[in-house]
Each structure stands twice: as C-alpha cells, then as structure tokens.
Amino acid sequence: MSTIAWTEDHSLHTARWHSENGAPAPHTVTTADDRLSADHAYRRIRAGEALLWQGDYNNGRQLLQALGRRADRKPAKKPATGDLGALYEHERIRRRTRAGILGSLLIRLGKGYELDLRRAPDVAAACEAAYGPADAERVVTFTELLGVVSAYRWQQQGVEVPALGARVYPGYGVFSPTRSEYVDLVADAPLDPEIRTAFDLGTGTGVLAALLATRGVPEIVATDINPRALRCAKDNAERLGFGRTIAVTGPALYPPGRADLVVCNPPWLPGVPTSDLERGVYDQDQSMLTEFARDLRSHLTPQGEGWLVLSDLAEILGLRPADHIPRLLDDSGLYVLGKLTTRPRHPRATDRDDPLAAARTAETTTLWRLRAR
Fold first, then answer.
1. Model pTM?
2. What confidence score (pLDDT) does residue 88 get?
3. How far apart are CA 347 and CA 350, in angstroms?
4. What is the domain extent for residue 256?
5. Which positions fall inside the Methyltransferase small domain (predicted)?
6. Are residues 86 and 168 in the same domain?
7. Are residues 142 and 247 in the same domain?
8. pLDDT for residue 70 is more than 70
C-alpha cells in the first residue's frame, strides 16, 4: 500500500493510503474542518486538492452532500434520448466524475480503527469486518468509510429473500441479492428430482446454492473468485443449516469434476469493475460468461443441465449484440432446452427520473436451460 503525506501544525504527517476501488493516493493533501464552506471546498477539490477532514463527523457528512449537489449543478450535455448506449456512457462518466469529487474528502482511521473526530461513531467493528484486523493508521475516503458502515449494518441485519424463506447476510464487497428476480427464476425452474449434485458458479452470498439446497439437492459446490464472497457464502451456508450440503471453494469459476446441474448468474453488463462489489455488475471482456459457456459441457454429467441466468440490459444498451448469447451457446456445443423470463421489480425499474428509465423498463431477465449436444 502507498502512503500519503500532509502538513499539520507545521509538521509533516504520513499514513497508509487505502482505497478499495484502487484509486491512487492523492498528490496534494491539506487539512479541512468546520470553518470551510462547501463552495470553498468544491473549488479546492476542483483545483486538485484532497481534503483531510478534521472537523465534526456529522458536519463532514453534510459537506459531502453539499459537494454532491455542486457536482450535479452543471452536468455535461446529454446525448439524444433515443441513443440508449450513449446515454449509458454519459451516465457512467457523470457518476465517475461525481465520485471523484466526493472521493476527495478524506478521513483518518487510527491504529485501532478509531475516529478522532467530534460526534464520530464507533466504526471499529465495521472496519475490521471489511478490512481485517487493525494494524496501522490509514486514510480512506469519507465515502468509502460510509460504505463500510452501511455494509456492516446489512451484514448484521441481513436481507430477506422471499424465495428462500430466510435472510442472507452480505459481507462488505459482496453483491447483495436485492434484485430478487434472478432468485425467483431459480426457485421456479423445473428441477429433476434425480439431480444429486450441483455447482453454483460465482456464488456471491451463496443465495442460489442455499436455494438449491432447500429444493432438495443434496450435494452442492459453490465457487467464487472473490475471497470475501467465499467467506460470506460459507457463513450463510452455516447460518442456514447447509454447512454439510454446500461446499464453498475458490478462487476459480469451475470446481473439478462434473455435476448434474450447473447454475451461473454472471454480471449482466460488459465493463471493467473498479471494486469487489462491482464484480457483481461488470464482467470484464465478458470473460465469466464466455468461460461458463465454453467449459459447461466438460463439467456436466451425461444428462446434466446448465442454468444461465442473465438480464438483457446489455443488449438493450447496445453493449452486446442481440445474437451474442445464442451464438456463444451454439459455438460451445450447447442447445437450449427451455427458457423462463421475468421482468425486473427492483426500485430503479420504475424510477422515471433515471436517465436509463427506458432501458430498465424494457429489461427482462432470462433463465436459459441448457444441455450439451
């Protein structure tokens, strides 16, 4: 990890720089407190400074909100409404720019993850859950710390999954199953009672592996390339009483051997993830989708099935050709046994203020039932 430096009381200070999204350490760091106005803070950030917050904790949160409002004041000119691909790229650039501005407000964590700020909460447990045992003073962005605290609340409270009839507990950096349509498809798909073994590829929280266990599959292997997801999935399997039914392994997509059923819900958009959490959304070079299809035949038993669960948002946005998946499956020696489809029910699907509302309204999620030729 790199370090950052700043001057405080005419003395040079340094600390470890930590960024979950891989952002480089800022070059120019100055201190800031409650005397700094939002307008002045915004100008300093736009001029290239990063601000190490030393004021009241709650005032720092309010400053973040004020910076966000200023970042939204003069958005770049939007492309034509009908060009959904261009709108998507515009929105990604806008969000990246906004995140860069908000990510210039920093906060220092002590050697035990303590916050030396007025009205600061105790964040030690949340930080240890996200980062591991404390070992040194570090500086993070204020937005990252808020994300760590929010994720810890989810990890403590859990997320209710109606199709499972239980809660799962997402860890920091693991995609939460708040979009329930893909879970419902797996719950509704016809399942041969003779199926004895299953692989859940890219398991995340382990929710699909747990669902297969509740449907009676006696032996399941869940995989992921994210070490945090592996820990999270194992924890959820044990919480739900499936510790002996579900074996969690990685980091790899496919485990050794063959299974009667192979389930995969890959990230639904081509793109480069910038954090562990974004690995649940963006599939760089569509590598996970391609590997799933290419290697499925060699991991299925003779009459085994593969279930690919995927949204068509990428096709709607023009990020993937409409015939890409059928061609990929055909080239991989697979044929489609059947399909189940559903419409999204998450809040953004009905948010008319979303620049991509037209695309989200048209989106469908499909479970492709596949068999080797």
1. 0.88
2. 79
3. 6
4. 161-372
5. 194-311
6. no
7. no
8. yes
